[in-house]
Amino acid sequence: MTAVVAAQGLGKKYGRRWALSDLTLEVPAGRVVGLVGPNGAGKTTLLSLACGQIAPTSGTITVLGGTPAAGPAQLAKVGYVAQDTPLYPGLSIADHLRLGARLNPTWDHELARRRVERLGLDPARRAGRLSGGQRAQLALTLGIAKRPELLILDEPVSALDPLARREFMRGLMEAVADQELSVVFSSHLVSDLERTCDHLIVLAGSRLRISGDAEELLATHHRLTGPRRDPGRLPADQHVVSASHTDRQSTLIVRTTAPILDPAWTVSQVSLEDLVLAYMDTPPPAAAPRPVLEIQR
Amino acid sequence: MIWLTWRQFRVSAAVAFAALAALAVVLGLTGPGLADEYSAGLAACVAGSRDCVEFGQLFFRTKQDVFLVVSLIVLVLPALIGLFWGAPLIARELEGGTHRLVWNQSVTRTRWLTVKLALPGLAAMAVAGVSALLVTLWAGPLDEAAAQDVPRMTPLLFAARGVVPIGYAAFAFALGVATGMVVRRTLPAMAVTLALFTAVQVAMPLLVRPHLLPPVRTLSEITALDVEGIGTPEDRSVLVRVQVSGTDRWILSSRTVDASGHTVELVPLPTSVCAPGGGDDRPPPDAAPPRPRPAPSWLSACVAEMKRLGYRQEVTYQPDSRFWPFQWLETGVYALLTLGVTALCFRWIRRRPS
């Protein structure tokens, strides 16, 4: 399978600050990718680079094998739902669908019309008078009906209430099921991703902390609990992601592909949320090799 | 893309069209009456006679206010276009974040900008062109009657007639768009656009237009008509101030020079030859005399004395016959400015970070 997004040493600088630096990753096709990280981690920057909204300061990024926003054909392949789901407040819902139809050769009008109908929206309603949830749904409709190969969503649900959030995610997952669609969406809430994503990218402090398929991540990360000890004295193939200590006890989250043999440890499963939080919490090890999981197929 | 641009522009277009239609109706209703009145007045007098000149001046003075208002419409229109069409065009998209929506449809930014500039830009030029044409036609009789007082080359009149308003409108629009891109907020962009455009419009007649073609320079004898004022500060001499009035030309500078070519502010003359008589020490009461009066004999003596001493008047000016060459030249200058600003817009959209 070809990569939907491939980045090599990707970096973006705003003024003197690196919003994203030295990012190398590959996202396989057909995944629903969750991009997680605290605010200011570089999520929006990465997604803007992927849709060609901005150009990288260093390194390269290819999306579906092409340079982002290189031409109409490339633009047609990538759908993008921007943060805060901008819409033209003066234009009606029908106008927005018409906009999509006029500006996209691959536009699926029937799909768009059905979605708006199912949402119970009056097509004559102005976009400026929609609720946040309705706005997000309309923006999603525009993104889906374009029939892209890759749909990128930047914090689509962060401003929505739980109900609207669930509705939105349901709409998104239906589209993924109906169309052969790869999705990359960002969130700072891990709970948004847990049910929907099968691939994760964790950014923190403008750097990539980890990326990989969810199952693989879960299979290679363990929580170790045991008598207090120095994490530096673990076997070389066990990378400590995070460590916390009480007077007598140590709790570590480690990444390893080998089984844990030391009988002193109680080994337990980590959840995706624990894993993400562990990576977001701790600064990247200065000298250690970057923790990128290779996708082996 | 054309559909979207039109959809976003149609309200502005409707407003402009309605205003233009209203202007056309008003000018269309009053224009023929104005022309009739003028031609009837001219028919009633002997061509070239004093009566005819008097009629022309009276005709112009009674309609001066409406003449000014109509000319002002053409003068202000380009600024309005830059303010309300140009500045918000991109700034509003950036402000509302909608550029992130539209730039991710299957249309490149360059194409998006091309269409967005072309449609309102051409409309702006059309509106300016039509309104200037309407006003030029309507004001024809008035311009002719006022030619003595207000030559067509006068900056205010020059900018409100002919083809230059088209150039102004195109430039104002492009300037507004570029400003909006840089400032990124609609209201400040409008303010900056107004300031920049006003600066250019003031700089043009002051600094650039006089030199579009080399001005004509003449050194001529002073006549009685040119004498603006005479003062007698001392008993033994009088001081004469000379100023030529501008008929059929746009005077750039006018100075009195003595026999050796030095500029003199006031011409000193001995009272023995030049004695202002009868208490009438300011011969023509108006700057622009209503009609050539026979000069009093003492004034002729003063003028003759100035001539004998070698005083002459040096005038640089642009003749009124250059009206059309100047119209085309200035439109060309504004076309170049417009192209330059438009090129900046395209450069910006290629490199701009989101």
From TrEMBL, chain A:
Location of the ABC transporter domain: 5-230
PROSITE patterns attached to this UniProt entry: ABC_TRANSPORTER_2
Keywords: ATP-binding, Nucleotide-binding, Transport
Source organism, top-level taxon: Bacteria
UniProt-listed InterPro entries: AAA+_ATPase, ABC_transporter-like_ATP-bd, ABC_Transporter_VariousFunc, P-loop_NTPase
The keyword Transport is assigned to this record: yes
Pfam family, one: ABC_tran
PANTHER family: ABC TRANSPORTER ATP-BINDING PROTEIN ALBC-RELATED (PTHR42939:SF1)
Protein name in UniProt: ABC transporter ATP-binding protein
Species annotation: Sphaerisporangium corydalis
From TrEMBL, chain B:
Keywords for this protein: Membrane, Transmembrane, Transmembrane helix
Keyword match Membrane: yes
Residue span of region Disordered: 272-295
Bilayer-crossing regions: 66-91, 112-138, 158-177, 189-208, 331-349
Domain of life: Bacteria
Composition skew (Pro residues), residue ranges: 285-295
Protein name: ABC transporter permease
Organism annotation: Sphaerisporangium corydalis
Signal peptide feature range: none
